[in-house]
C-alpha cells in the first residue's frame, strides 16, 4: 500500500525569511521563551531573523552552534545550558547540524537527565515521548532536507556510533527555505550539499519503503538539481541557481521524509566519522556504484535515468565525479588518505540499521567492500 504523510508547513523562495516573526508568534507558547539557535552570530542581523526582537527581548534567547556532524557531548552541552530557560519554541537557523540539534532539544526538554550518559542511554533506547515544544527549521544550506524530516543525526565518535533521534511527533511546525541564506556558501560546500540532496532523492526512489508521492518528488528534485548545478558551478553567485538548489533540496527532503535513505548513506557513515569526508561528498561518491548495484531491483528505471539526464546507469557515477572534480573535491578514497587495508573495516561498519536494510538489494560486508574498491 502506498502512503505518504508530511505535516510541515513549507515556505520556499527569496524573501520568505520575512515570515519568521509571524510564524513564531502563531506557535509560541504563553509564558515560554523562544530559543534561536544559529550557526553564526551574523545570522542575527538578517532581515526576518532580526524582526524576532519585536516579540520582546526577554522572550527570545539566542545561542550559536557552529560544529559540523554534532556530537552527543555537544548536544548535552546545549541542553544543559538551556533546559532551565522554559523554552517553548526552537527556531533553528543553519545547516543540517544546527537543525538536528534544534529538533533534538525538543525531545529532551522536560526529561530528567542528570548526565551525558543518561542522554546516551535515552537516545539509544529511543525513550523520548511527545516533544515538549515545537520547532521551526530555517536551512542555510541546500541539501540536508532536515527541516522537513522528523529525525536527527547525532554522532558519538568516542564509541564509533551514529544515533538517530527519531520521533514521528517531532516534525517542524514550519520550514522556511530562503535561498538568500545559502547564497554565500563556498562552492565546495554548495556542491557537497547538492549531492546530499541528490542522494536523498535517488535513494527515496529505489528504497524498499518507496511510495508514489515520494517517487514523484524524487524525480522532480533530481531533475532540478541536475539542470541547475552546472550554472552554480559556472556562477556561484547566481540567484537562479541557488533558488533551484533550495527547491531541489526541499523536494528531496519531502521525498525521503517518508522513505528514509538506503545504501549510500549507510556506507557513507564510517567514511565521515573515521576519515572526515564531508557527508555530501561521501554519499555522492557512492551514488553511482549503488545505483548499478540496485539496478535489477529498481522499478521503472527509465524515468530515473531521464531525471539524471543520462542514457545508461554507469553514466550517473561519471556525472557525479565530474561535478566533484569541478568543485575541487577529491574523487577517490585514496585521495582522502584511506588505505586499501582499511577497506574491510570500513565495510564492516557500513551496515547501518534502518538504512542498509532499506536497500532493495541485500548489503553484506563483501558487497560493501566491492563497492568501496570501485571508488578507491
Explain this structure:
- The chain has 376 residues and is α/β, with parallel strands linked by helices.
- The chain folds into 2 domains: 172 residues, Rossmann fold, CATH 3.40.50.1970; 180 residues, Dehydroquinate synthase-like - alpha domain (Dehydroquinate synthase-like, alpha domain), CATH 1.20.1090.10.
- It contains 13 helices and 8 strands.
- The strands form 2 sheets. The protein has a 6-stranded parallel β-sheet, sandwiched between helices. It has a two-stranded antiparallel ribbon with strand order 6-7.
- Strand 6 and strand 7 form a beta hairpin.
- Helix 5 packs parallel to helix 9, helix 6 runs parallel beside helix 10 and helix 9 packs antiparallel against helix 11.
- The mean pLDDT is 95.
How do the strands and helices of this protein lay out in sequence?
Blueprint: E1 9-12, H1 20-27, E2 33-38, E3 60-64, H2 72-82, E4 87-94, H3 96-108, H4 116-125, E5 134-139, E6 151-156, E7 161-166, E8 174-177, H5 187-206, H6 212-234, H7 239-256, H8 263-275, H9 279-294, H10 301-307, H11 314-326, H12 343-348, H13 365-374
Parallel strand pairs: 1-8, 2-3, 2-4, 4-5, 5-8
Antiparallel strand pairs: 6-7
Amino acid at each position: 500500500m502506498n502512503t505518504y504523510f508530511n505535516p510541515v508547513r513549507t515556505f520556499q523562495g527569496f524573501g520568505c525569511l520575512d515570515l519568521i516573526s509571524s510564524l513564531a508568534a502563531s506557535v509560541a507558547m504563553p509564558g515560554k521563551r523562544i530559543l534561536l539557535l544559529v550557526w553564526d552570530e551574523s545570522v542575527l542581523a538578517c532581515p526576518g531573523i532580526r524582526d524576532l526582537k519585536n516579540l520582546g527581548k526577554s522572550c527570545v534567547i539566542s545561542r550559536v552552534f557552529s560544529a559540523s556532524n554534532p556530537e552527543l557531548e555537544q548536544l548535552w552541552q546545549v541542553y544543559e545550558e538551556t533546559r532551565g530557560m522554559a523554552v517553548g519554541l526552537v527556531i533553528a537557523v543553519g545547516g543540517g547540524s544546527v537543525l538536528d540539534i534544534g529538533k533534538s532539544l525538543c525531545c529532551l526538554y522536560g526529561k530528567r537527565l542528570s548526565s551525558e550518559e543518561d542522554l546516551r542511554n535515552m537516545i539509544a533506547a529511543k525513550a523520548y515521548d511527545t516533544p515538549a515544544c515545537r520547532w521551526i527549521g530555517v536551512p542555510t544550506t541546500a541539501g540536508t532536507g532536515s527541516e522537513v524530516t522528523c529525525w536527527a543525526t547525532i554522532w558519538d565518535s568516542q564509541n564509533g556510533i551514529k544515533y538517530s533521534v527519531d520521533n514521528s511527533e517531532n516534525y517542524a511546525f514550519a520550514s522556511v527555505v530562503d535561498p538568500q541564506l545559502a547564497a554565500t556558501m563556498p562552492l565546495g560546500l554548495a556542491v557537497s550539499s547538492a549531492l546530499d540532496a541528490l542522494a536523498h532523492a535517488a535513494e527515496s526512489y529505489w528504497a524498499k519503503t518507496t511510495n508514489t508521492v515520494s517517487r514523484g518528488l524524487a524525480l522532480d528534485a533530481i531533475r532540478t538539481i541536475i539542470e541547475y548545478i552546472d550554472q552554480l558551478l559556472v556562477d556561484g553567485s547566481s540567484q537562479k541557481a541557488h533558488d533551484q538548489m533550495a527547491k531541489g533540496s526541499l523536494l528531496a527532503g519531502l521525498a525521503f521524509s517518508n522513505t528514509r535513505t538506503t545504501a549510500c548513506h549507510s556506507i557513507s557513515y564510517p567514511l565521515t566519522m573515521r576519515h572526515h569526508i564531508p557527508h555530501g561528498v561521501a554519499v555522492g561518491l557512492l551514488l553511482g556504484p549503488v545505483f548499478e548495484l540496485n539496478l535489477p531491483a529498481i522499478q521503472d528505471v527509465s524515468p530515473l535515468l531521464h531525471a539524471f539526464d543520462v542514457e545508461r546507469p554507469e553514466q550517473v557515477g561519471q556525472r557525479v565525479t565530474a561535478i566533484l572534480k569541478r568543485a575541487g573535491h577529491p574523487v577517490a578514497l585514496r585521495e582522502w588518505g584511506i588505505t586499501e587495508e582499511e577497506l574491510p573495516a570500513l565495510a564492516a561498519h557500513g551496515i547501518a540499521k534502518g538504512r542498509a536494510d532499506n536497500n532493495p538489494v541485500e548489503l553484506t560486508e563483501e558487497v560493501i567492500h566491492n563497492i568501496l574498491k570501485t571508488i578507491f
